[in-house]
Amino acid sequence: MSETKIKYLISESENMIMEYLWKHESGKTFRDITEYLNDICQKDWKKQTINTFIRRLIDKGLVVSQNAEHKKVYYPAMTYTEYKQGEARDFINELYDGSMYAFLSTFSGGQKLDKNTAEDLRKILEEE
Predict the structure, then answer these.
(1) CB under 8 Å to 61, separation ≥6 — which residues?
(2) pLDDT tens digit string along 21-49?
(3) Structural domains of the chain, with CATH
(4) How far apart are CA 82 and CA 45, in angstroms?
(5) What gap in Å lies between CA 73 and CA 32, rounded to an integer?
(6) CA nearest 80: which of 20, 3, 5?
(7) Vertex 57 angle, CA 54 and 59, to 5°
(8) What confidence tens digit (pLDDT) does each residue in 98-119 have?
(9) DSSP secondary structure string, 3-60?
């Protein structure tokens, strides 16, 4: 299987679908997703619009589908935590050339970190 570059940048509408799928690990059908968006989220989207959002999420590597009993069931391709970690990596890679040092330096505004924060960061970095 060829490895697809996951695209973490998603629209607000795509995010609504992802949040729904993350809450329901058992997967959801197109009908479930449509009812959620139109009834619960009070959108008035046509099937074609919702299908476009789902297709984009599949193309980005964030959603997978399986055939089950004459219908497709959609699942998140990763957990919410995995998504957020990937989103953060992409952010640092794109804006700071992958340099955690450059990111933290910018984040801290050039100020020294207090000892507790520095120690917490050290622990996190040692886990990797």
Answers:
(1) 4, 5, 6, 7, 77
(2) 999 988 999 999 999 999 999 999 999 99
(3) 12-76 (1.10.10.10), 80-127 (no CATH)
(4) 29
(5) 9
(6) 20
(7) 110
(8) 888 888 888 778 777 788 988 8
(9) PPPP-----HHHHHHHHHHHH-TT-EEHHHHHHIIIIIS-----HHHHHHHHHHHHHT
